Amino acid sequence: MVDFRDLGVGLSIADAIGEMGWTEPTPVQEAVIPSGLGGRDIFAQAQTGTGKTGTYAAIVLGRIKSGSRSPSAIVLAPTRELAVQIDLEMKKLSKYSKHRSLAVYGGASISDQIYRLRRGTDIVVGTPGRVKDMIERGVLDLSSIREAVLDEADRMLDMGFAEELNFIIGSLPADRQTMLFSATMSDSITGMAMKMMDDPLKLMVSKDEPCSDLTAQYFIPVSRSGKMERLQMILRNGNPKTIVFCQTKKMVDDLYNGLCRDFRAEAMHGDMPQGKREKVIRNFRDNRFDVLIATDVAARGLDVNNIDCVVNYDVPSDPETYLHRIGRTGRAGKEGTAISFVTKYEDHRIGMYEQATGKKITKIRVDQLEPMERVRTEVPARAEERPFRAERPQRGAGRDRIPAERPARVGNQDGKKFRDKDAMFILQVNLGKNDGVGRMQITDLIKKNTKLNRDIIGRIGLGKTCSYFEVDGDSAEYVIDTLSDCRYGSKKVCVQMAPQKKHYAENAA
Ligand code: AMP
Asked: Which protein residue's CA is at the shortest distance from atom 18 of ligand 1?
């Protein structure tokens, strides 16, 4: 196995990388870092999720000294969010090398950023508009710049920053290393790259496979009015951590209003103040909510791992945007699912996306989807958000809590029984199909260990590595306590509250 030291990364950066838990370089890092550290210009097709930030950060930090008065490196990024994330990654990677990084972007106080700039930084990470502004005001001294990086260059052009980029690049010393990263390789990007670079190492990372193999892509034919119901079914199917993309801010707001009562959802769009957007991203990263509803601009550069699912509530009109959206999932070696809602007027777009991704997009019905499981550490909900109290009862004590009378069951028109859903809790158990477990095994496990009757158990949803089952609210605590002490074969069973109380796979038996 290759490690970062083999690629020429110095000890202090390699130690910081180790602390970030990166055990081995990604393919882009492996391909680019050695040439970059050698000083060669780089022109790479690499999307978010490929480890591109770590790639150029390792090169920049390996090539510039720390502690300079004026900056030695500049990184340009299309959005404030991305600039902040790059700055964060720079800071983490320079924990031991002591390089200083500063993010500058619009929508925040320029005088504060100027003040920080004057205190000295080695690296400036900025959006093109703010950087140009600072150059014109004479507060950003570029004379010591040795490293220039353009991140998501295609997006910067799409957003109309060509003029700012030309101005900034024209202001840089000629004797520098330039690295350009772009998700796509259009003629305009190639033209720009050739103008600003000298014999670059060209890396078409994923020309034939521009999106991660780890992402399964589906589309669901729907009418406009059928979207909401389908989305709710998807979100209930294993409670995936999901980004839902909408075309307009109004749609984001409408959808948020429709979902917020039943799901832990947040909205994010360009009209929201910067501080609020940053908070939403932080909370999403910390798993404080499950469903982020966003427009493209707001979600651009969003660096959140462990996203299980991307839903294109409205499909984008261009394949690049489709690529960018679905690139939010299937990252850092984890599986992801991308689902597009397609009305009959939009179905021709699927062919365009297939061409862009080089992958088949499979037509599917919601009830055919496998539950999307979340394996993640959740920041504990605040006490008042917990569905029942945090402390567990003494072993066995929970039995006393089972009421003599169970919640009322009401016969439906078929004469079948159904449960008072609000009286049920959903629990998650760390057993699934991969353990050879089916619904019967889960039922038996519960019955055998708790000695409770089958009728405390509601629906059971099976996943590959974990499953979900409903139990009567009054028995939930006891079931968690009792099952968490037992084994299934050689495996220690772990049962906990599913991340949400009421939501559940509609297709569970
Ligand atoms: P990027 O392509 O820069 O947006 O990176 C995507 C995510 O992968 C970020 O959260 C990085 O922290 C993470 N990452 C980058 N390089 C590695 C690596 N070698 N191993 C594991 N994770 C990584």
From this structure: 22
